[in-house]
Amino acid sequence: MLANDHVDLDVGAGEVHALMGENGAGKSTLMSILYGLCRPDSGTVALGGEPVGFDSPAQAIEAGVGMVQQEFALFPQLTVAENVVFGREPTRAGLLDRRAAVRVVDELIARHDLRVRPGDRVGDLPVGLRQQVEILKLLYRSADVLILDEPTAVLTPAETERLFGVLRALADEGRTVLFVSHKLHEILAVSDQVTVMRDGKVSAHGPAAEFTPHSLASAMTGREIDLDRVHPPGTPGEPVLELPELTVRAGEIVGIAGVAGNGQNVLVSRITGAAHVPEERGETGSAASASVADNLAVGFHRRGPLLRGGLLRPSEMRKHARAIIERFDVRATERQPMGTLSGGNQQKAILGRELTHDSPLLVVEQPTRGVDVGAIENIHARLVAYRDAGHGILLVSSELSEILALSDRILVMYEGRITAEFSRADADPDRIGLAMAGGVL
Description:
Pfam families: ABC_tran
Keywords: ATP-binding, Nucleotide-binding
Number of helices: 15
Oligomer: single chain
Largest sheet: 6 strands, mixed
Protein name: Heme ABC transporter ATP-binding protein
CATH superfamily of the largest domain: P-loop containing nucleotide triphosphate hydrolases
Distance between the termini: 54 Å
Shape: globular
InterPro entries: AAA+_ATPase, ABC_carbohydrate_import_ATPase, ABC_transporter-like_ATP-bd, ABC_transporter-like_CS, P-loop_NTPase
Mean pLDDT: 87
Structural class: alpha/beta
GO molecular function: ATP binding; ATP hydrolysis activity
Radius of gyration: 23 Å
């Protein structure tokens, strides 16, 4: 199958254009062509009506096309201003003119109503503000076309709203914003036009106002998706995890709700040692340069059938990987480097590996971040089946809808403490949201 099969994409100046599709539908390939990361076998790319062909991102940026990728390319030890001007520094007498750098970056921040400061050290910034630094880099280079790949995947709801305000303002200036996302409600909230891809082809296109979440989901997957499903409750048994303020029982999903940065990661780091699906799939959940088979062997590599006579058996590792790939619908082969998979397929692979361990307790962080609606439905069903098989699950998610759909009990974390607990029957979104913001119930 072709990654992009005769794809037509027309994007106008002054619009936010959403591009969506399942993991592996061809979105990333299409954006990579536009940004100069790869070249098409056939077809043309035109910018302002003139044919162009980029051999590198540097050429694309020179022509006014910039991209904010999921993995930010920033220097954490440098300031905001130093990151923004890097490679195109204003100079004075052959040296970096720091005052000029701060001045021009400060002017960009004020013009676009951003929330960072030129002297802030990037390593000290939350992820939402780091994303603003990436946008500043493109604005400094006078990009007229801005591509954002899954820009809200790591943002809180408040940060997402601020980002949407920035994107609308950029479009109002006459810039073109290409917004790649899986989140149906966000796409409809911010976009002027929507293009949907499925299996390398365009399956739907039109004004955002003509779509609904359900019609978008159908165009993406080719089938009806139940977007509002709340799974039936489990049957809790004996505790599989006991902490002073936290207990998880066999046959139960306990959801941890909270705005990012309120201690969820610290809690997970204190618990894990059992099977674990981490929040950072690229940094801690997998090895990008190793093969899919190598990654899926982790945790199974000290026993048979993968190990015999103290040596790993490559054929058994590949067989083991193929079984997980097939069971969890991972769009990959066992010999591919893990880093070449789309973010959603990496997530499915890691989740499949951990579910296959069959541990009494599964700790899972952000299980559907960057995953399309069809895969979300599948992942949710897998987690519920794991619970119903008698396992306990501690679910940490920034998606309140996910917490509500899956959890038998919900705990809220605020400023490092568990501040509220809700049964499934009492799980009201407004009350949970109030607790997440530190309000008194």
